[in-house]
Amino acid sequence: MDNAHLLTVAQRTVAKTIRRLNKLYPQFTRDRIDVKINNRLKTTAGRCFIEMGYIDLCPSLMRENLDEFIKVTIPHEVAHQAAWDMFEEPAHGKPWKLIMVALDLEPTPWHHMTTAAQRAKRC
Fold first, then answer.
1. At a CB cut-off of 8 Å and minimum separation 6, what does 110 contact?
2. With contact defined as beta carbons under 8 Å apart, do 87 and 95 qualify?
3. By CB atoms within 10 Å of each CB, which of 13, 19, 82, 103 scores lowest?
4. What is the pLDDT along the chain (123 residues), one digit of tens a residue?
């Protein structure tokens, strides 16, 4: 899976999550969050740059944990943007946690994903 494919999957997931949040929270009026695939990220799954309105994703983790990214990581990052847009609350505070619960997701701020290369390095 190349980065272009990962970007397409991520953009679709972001758009779907935004539509869902627009229905759950009428005051959340954002219709777009840009996505970047960042090859410099190695252990951080994703980051949300709330003031610039984009998220960064780790391609190696995404490639090996695609289902987790679609179901949890990308919505997690979109929830950061929503918490900022609606409540001006950054990080993993109460608004972010409530949004995660509304998305039927566990509001945990960390992940346990690894890549084959990371696992081999530990051995």
1. none
2. yes
3. 19
4. 899 999 999 999 999 999 999 999 999 999 999 999 999 999 899 999 999 999 999 999 999 999 999 999 999 999 999 999 999 998 999 999 999 999 999 999 988 887 777 767 776
- Under 8 Å between Cβ of 37 and 57: yes
Entry field: residues in the chain: 123
* CA 119 centroid distance within chain: 23
Give the bridge partners for 46, in sequence order: 57
CB atoms within 10 A of CB 38: 16
Q: Single out the catalytic residue among 51, 64, 68, 77.
A: 77
Query: What are the helix (H) ranges across the chain?
Result: 3-24, 59-64, 66-68, 74-87, 94-102, 116-122
Backbone angles phi, psi at 83, to 5 degrees: -60, -40
Nearest of 24, 123, 6 to residue 64 by alpha carbon: 6
